[in-house]
Structure formats: C-alpha cells, structure tokens
Design brief:
This protein has two domains: 6-39, no CATH class; 48-139, K homology (KH) domain (GMP Synthetase, Chain A, domain 3, 2-Layer Sandwich), CATH 3.30.300.20. Helices cover 33% and strands 33% of the residues. The chain starts with 5 loop residues before the first strand and ends with a strand. It has helices spanning 35-39, 48-70, 108-121, 123-127, and strands spanning 6-11, 18-23, 30-34, 77-87, 91-102, 133-139. It is α+β, with helices and mostly antiparallel strands. Helix 2 (48-70) crosses helix 3 (108-121).
Length: 141
C-alpha cells in the first residue's frame, strides 16, 4: 500500500485569506489557493475542485488504459477532461468526464464498455460515489 501527501497552508478568513497547497509526496509543485479562485476562477491560483478534477482525469485515464491493454487493445492515446461542479451552498455537484481515445483494433461499442467500466471502477470515481458522475466517450478513428 502506498500513501501520498499534500500539505495546505492558509492565512486569514475564508473570503479574503490566501494560502498554498503543496504536492508533498513528489515535491513537484506548490500552488497558490484562495476563495476567489474557487468562486471566480482567478488566474494563477487553484482550488479543491480543480485538484479533484485533475485527480479524476488522471485516475480515469490510467484505468481506461489498463482495461484496454488487458483486452489486448492498448490505446495509442487517451485525452481526458474532467469538469467538477461546485456550489458554495451544497458542495460538489458532480463530475463530468469527457474522453477521446485512439485505440486500434476495437469498435465503438467495445470502447464504450471499457470507458464505462473505467468510470465506474477507477479509485477516484469510487471516492466520489456521493455525487453524480457522467461520461462522454469518443473513439477517434
């Protein structure tokens, strides 16, 4: 079992405060954070929902790649975009996955099954089970 760590530092009240979040396990990045980035999409800062979207896109792509490779039809490319909705009153509202992949020797119906399986079973999807998760999957030929 592996464990990963991120560290956040926050100063001040919610609406005017600022902080940073560090990818502590890898040490590869530290990002500025703040309420404005969450409510108004300010350039140069991130927010929890964007980080969740990044995690979901990464996990989903890996799960889909693994499923396709296990079928003997490894992908050439997988491009995944995830949009996570947030409402300040109710929290996360959903996660929408859009994937476009180039996969030789597979038809659209087979691809759709692998895409759905990855949506249902990647670990981040399972962690987000309390919100709706939707999928648009396209096999690019």
């Amino acid at each position: 079992m592996t464990k990963n760590q991120a560290k956040a530092h926050w100063e001040g009240p919610l609406l005017s405060g600022v902080g940073t979040v560090e990818m502590a396990t890898s040490g590869i990045a530290t990002f500025p954070i703040g309420w404005a980035a969450r409510a108004e999409h300010v350039d140069g800062a991130t927010n929890p929902e964007e980080l969740i979207a990044a995690a979901h896109a990464t996990c989903y792509s890996m799960a889909l790649s693994n499923g396709l490779a296990g079928n003997g039809t490894p992908p050439e490319t997988i491009d995944t975009t995830v949009e996570v909705g947030f409402d300040p009153r109710s929290g996360l509202t959903g996660s929408h996955i859009t994937v476009v992949a180039v996969v030789p020797d597979i038809d659209a119906d087979q691809f759709a099954k692998f895409a759905q399986d990855a949506k249902d079973n990647c670990p981040v999807s399972k962690a987000l089970a309390g919100i709706p998760i939707t999928l648009d999957a396209t096999l690019k030929i």
